[in-house]
Amino acid sequence: MDTLQYTNGWLNLENNRIDEINHFCEDYKHFLNAGKTERQCVKAAIAEAKQHGFRPIEEFEQLVAGDKVYFINRNKNVVLTVVGKRPICEGIRFVVSHIDSPRLDLKPNPMYEKNELALMRTHYYGGIKKYQWASRPLALHGVVVTKSGRTVDIVIGEDPQDPVFTIPDLLPHLDKKVQRERNAAEVLKGEELQIIVGSVPMSFDDEKIKDKVKQHILIKLHEKYEITEPDFISAELMLVPAGDARDVGIDQGIVGAYGQDDRICAYTSLEAILEIPTPEQTAVCFLVDKEEIGSSGATGLESRYLEFFTGELLIRQAGAQYNDQMLRRCLWKSYALSSDVNAGLNPLFESVHDAQNASKLGYGLVLTKYTGHGGKAGSNDADAEYVAALRRIFDDHEITWQTGLLGKVDEGGGGTVAKYLAHYGINTIDAGAALLSMHSPFELASKFDIYELYRAYKTFYTEAL
Fold first, then answer.
1. What pTM did the predictor assign?
2. pLDDT at 239
3. Where would you find the membrane-spanning parts of this chain (predicted)?
4. What is the DSSP string of 289-342?
């Protein structure tokens, strides 16, 4: 008789498996370091996909089993597809992860000078604890597109020789009235998330120029990047924590890094699809944008891009036989893992968790039957039959897995892209890793769980349900 007992995956691991895990996680850390923005993640994913034989959809007139195809949507979504042995219209295996993470975006008109310091104003993106972003090194990433259409890539703060940026916090000697009387959400307010970008005035005196420090910064930006102040209007520039992913703990069993929600799932699903043989059902790795702000916009899953690329796949296989009902049938027969992270049981704040239904670091893939808040609002709530099928294939392949919920019932909650996939009738469940310090500038994940995600996604792509 089966008993419900999850186990720590590190127990009784053979040395060769530990070596595999460590090697895989070194590559994962390189991916995190190189992909701190959506555009960078897409670029890295396509570069690796091309090395594994993937080609753009435009090169295919007719799709056959084994074809490896990719789509790019506005440089913020990437879809990798391995065409299966069965007709695409009989359903697809989707693993969908998001590649956006909480951050600070520069405002369209960000720069000003005050007290002979040049500063830039930001607007935070996604759910953050604002106080965590003060008095720490920040790097500037993104693109500027000039009026002429020239695209300028910018990364400042990652090279050891680069300057960094920071938000000046208030010293404890003077914060009694200004900060200590505020609640935690307002220790640092949104409009106080402003970075220092300069302190040296331009070297020549010009009485017509009032803000000499700001002007000096603009001169330097023009010298290096050939951009001007109005170009910030057509830019996507963001502040992220500066520095590389690191091992955490004397035993080095944890990866600490910015952006593991949800690039931990993006990387493992990417690596999984690159290595699978031709599957029975067509396999899709879909890396999406905008999850952290509700999946809105043309690059979020609330858009209809999933319909667009699925229709393109069907047309290139069914030809003149294609019709809209074929698309709807295909999606209705499909299966998806909404690959997103869960809140690991925090030893310092256990009271917010239902320990019996909380995920733990080192216990493998987390299957989250439902998310949502306040009575499962905004949740997908996976079918029992689908959960049972996943239990079977993961157990058959000795994948270490657990279940987990996002805290106690009335403690808070959150959502993922699952409900947008389920909108099409796709069988969907959330499946990712447990994290500590989620949405912070330094999130924590178990190396064992990272590798187990990769193994689980490979199994999902290829095994019968």
1. 0.95
2. 98
3. none
4. S-GGGTS-STTSTTSSHHHHHHHHHHHHHHGGG--HHHHHHHHHT-EEEE---E
